[in-house]
TrEMBL record:
It holds the Pfam family Pep_deformylase. GO terms for biological process: translation. NCBIfam families: pept_deformyl, PRK00150.1-3. It comes from Erythroxylum novogranatense. One of its GO terms (molecular function) is peptide deformylase activity. Residues 239-266 are annotated as: Disordered. The lineage of its organism: Eukaryota, Viridiplantae, Streptophyta, Embryophyta, Tracheophyta. This is Peptide deformylase.
């Protein structure tokens, strides 16, 4: 089953309890029948573009109402559109417009067979993500995270074959912590804390990266990156042909470069 932002190639069983509406600890149980999911790899430095490297200010800027303007239906922004690397502002208005945006994000996520979607992927540069590990309307839990922050990462690293709606048809292995502890706000603005593991943790971390301007290939090993380099270059060419502008980034330029990680880690 190709499920868009994060594809699942193997049969899986997912158990999710109702998502909390108030601040309290919470745990999802997720059982995934894929050997790639449980492969345990030693953590090593990977090529990661850090937020600091891009010179973003440390203090979060608050989104204005014009930052949250959108037109339905939403469209998926594809690599190498600079919107995917832009800074995403914090949300402090929990109004009808935000609810409509979330509805539209779920809509396009289901239409494109996704299981997770971040706001910058629809051209809205704010700290917002939605996901549903089941990937079907009416099935599983619809999860909305506003202004999420990770307070804890598991030491155990797992490998998973990821895809991304902004990189149509491209799948490759990415290593990430097996579980995370998150502080966020819900759609009504209430704060809550949640522990995620398994597939929900995987989806969250992929989308959380989007909110920091980090893309999944930033976290791939050089060897894995080599396997999709041609496809990334094809997307860069597609962008140039469509916009008439040079690609704002080139995967070729990072060949052989190994940048110390650390971003997305405590
Ligand atoms: Zn993605």
């Amino acid at each position: 089953m190709a499920v868009g932002s994060l594809p699942v190639h193997a049969p899986q069983r997912f158990q999710a309890l109702p998502f909390p509406q108030t601040r309290r600890d919470y745990t999802f149980s997720c059982f995934i029948g894929s050997s790639s999911v449980v492969s345990l790899w030693k953590h090593h430095s990977m090529a990661v573009c850090s937020q600091a490297k891009r010179g973003w200010p440390k203090v979060d800027e608050v989104a204005s109402s014009s930052d949250l303007n959108f037109e339905a239906p939403l469209r998926i922004v594809e690599y190498p559109d600079p919107l995917l690397r832009a800074r995403n502002k914090r949300i402090d208005r929990f109004d009808e417009n935000l609810k409509k945006l979330v509805d539209e994000m779920f809509d396009i996520m289901y239409k494109t067979d996704g299981i997770g979607l971040s706001a910058p992927q629809v051209g809205i540069n704010v700290q917002l993500m939605v996901f549903n590990p089941v990937g079907e309307r009416g099935g599983g839990e619809e999860i909305v995270l506003v202004n999420p922050r990770v307070s804890k990462y598991a030491k155990k690293m797992v490998l998973f074959n990821e895809g991304c709606l902004s990189f149509p048809g491209i799948y490759a292995d990415v290593e990430r912590p097996q579980s995370v502890k998150i502080d966020a706000r819900d759609i009504g603005g209430a704060r809550y804390t949640v522990n995620l593991s398994g597939l929900p943790a995987r989806i969250f971390q992929h989308e959380y990266d989007h909110l920091q301007g980090v893309l999944f290939f930033d976290r791939m090993t050089e060897e894995v990156l080599d396997s999709i380099r041609g496809q990334l270059k094809a997307l860069e060419k597609k962008y140039e042909d469509k916009t008439g502008r040079p690609s704002p980034e080139r995967v070729e330029a990072r060949k052989g470069k190994r940048v110390a990680s650390g971003f997305g880690k405590p």
